[in-house]
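Action item from last week, closing it out:
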Amino acid sequence: MRILLSTLVAFFFVATISAQEPNIIAGHLLVMLKPEATAHAIVSDLATLGGVPTALKVDHEASAPMRIWLLTFNTNVPQASMLAAVRRHPAVMIAQNDHTIDERIVPNDTQFNQQWHHVDPQDNDIDTDLAWNITTGGTTANGDAIVVCVVEGFDRVHPDLNANSWVNAAEIDNNGIDDDANGYVDDVYGWNPAANNDNTLFSGSHGTSCAGMAGAVGNNSAGVVGANWNVKLMPVRIGSLTEANVIASYTYPLVQRRRWNNTNGTQGAFVVATTSSWGIDNANPNNYPLWCNFYDTLGAAGILSCGATANNNVNIDAVGDMPTACSSPFMISVTATDANDQRTFSAYGVNTIDVGAPGASVRTTTTGNTYTTTSGTSFATPLTAGVIALLYSAPCTGLATLARTDPDGAALAVRQALFSGVEQVGNLPGTIVTGGRINANNSLQYIIANCASYSPAVSVAPKVFLEGAYLPATGQMRDALRTAGLVPLTEPYTAMGFTNLSGGGGENTNANVLAVTGARAVVDWVRLELRANTAPYALLATRNALLCKDGSIIKADGTDNVLFNYGPGTYRLAVRHRNHLGTMTGNGVAFGGSPATVNFTIPATSTYGTEAQRAIGGVNALWMGNALLDGQLLYVGSGNDRDPILTRIGGSVPTNTVTGYWVEDCNLDGVVRYVGQDNDRDGILQNIGGSVPTEVRLEQMP
């Protein structure tokens, strides 16, 4: 995402200094330098102001990637005058005051059952238990380890946090060398920018409670569980609560995620979210341009930042707040709800505060290897960050790939899923941006439902005919199952035991799709498999789709071009049917954004193996009769495909028939027949050769 800094600079430079601006650190200024400029030039040029010595000096560089420095000066010089002079300097891009930050902790309120925010009898929880049926977090669909940065120290030796504590494996501890060349020496366990080491990260009851909300270890027979069972937690201790330290603290996850992006995941860390439970009450974000802008910078790298809003019942739209009034789309502002889905002690704002999350009397970890029940937006916020991390672990390769190829696009996609999944409850509607409290399961289902829309996704326009259903006289297949109302609304392959990957499985159609007549009338469900080109036995992604009379395969919603959540490349495509032998392309096919045409009905399309399909009057069709779906056609002997047909019609009277959606209905006319015209038995004998009943025909796929 491109940030128009020139526009932002023009806006912020005309902002006035309010006499009521809170938390200014006298004698401190933060400056962003223009490219190639130096902070020492400012110090030299502004050694005096109006003939008065300023004692202006460079304190330290707060963020090297963003060229942000902390300058200090004599407090006898008026703060506003010094700021105005620095802003006018030609080396300066942005300048602002430095500020102290207030930690957001409130005492416990009422008592609730332990971890009601996960499971609550009145359903005022975020349904993490339902989401865990799909994923418990930890890694993306591509296997990338997901990291949440807790911008605060926490007790990493706590038995419910230790296994989930992030470790920089590329760094050797205490050797005084920046082994991974990331600009930080000995940063094995995280970073403390104020102390310039990683040795003072492992204390703080508040931070320990925050970490537990996001990622206390799950399924370990002890204590509590976070939103994720396995996510990695990166501590960055903010130290003294100043704005300079805020920026320095945020710079560490920024550097690590940028390295991960630039090395395709071989270095750095896949940080997807930060969680910060501190801020400044009643602050005007116009006075904090560097801080607010930093969320756009983090977002461009793919990081969403969760901020705890004020722990008092005020309208942030009216009174302001930092950081939750910052306008960046990558800042997720969080207020707290209780076990009655009410916001009581925390702030709101229909234009500024994005979501509500449980934060009243929640059970979590604390120091001393113990647990506590506590309240505050401080704890609703890491819970939200934990849900964001959980969403990144969705079984959606498209989202996982997008995180590598378009990091800010993936972050915005997850933000949309988080917002779309909220429940409109309590007093939240009309008082915050989304009007709702987060729901992990709803948001996860949103990602799965929209997985095919995440770019990059590869697209295919396949065609196939099914022997038995194909009618040479018309050049199309019969749609007898559809006209008899037998085609199920949900794909049948998952129930049959097929493995689904990358968002496949559970596809549903509707009555409107099944009402279509003509060439695009639905014949039945088929299964598509995306396979590795050089290892065609390796299944990468699956889709269950609808087969039309003309052989076209369409999405379950009736639209063209089936999407796989996989990046562009060369793949094999296989197609299967529930009582036919499947087939696969003989060569790799280039897949990309434009639909790849794979027409299995024409002899010119190369297929894997020999006699992979049956030739019928100049077209090819899948071999019919595999009633046991075991990859072979047998007419006699153990495991043959003939006997199930007789069993289906009753087992004793061969002239009986049965109507329905049965796998033994090999010709797909809606009726299972053992003898007579249009029976389902003879085709099996014909397909193994027609004269030697002990012959076998094998499916031609690895």
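Closing note: Confidence is low (pLDDT under 50) at residues 1-19, 105-112.
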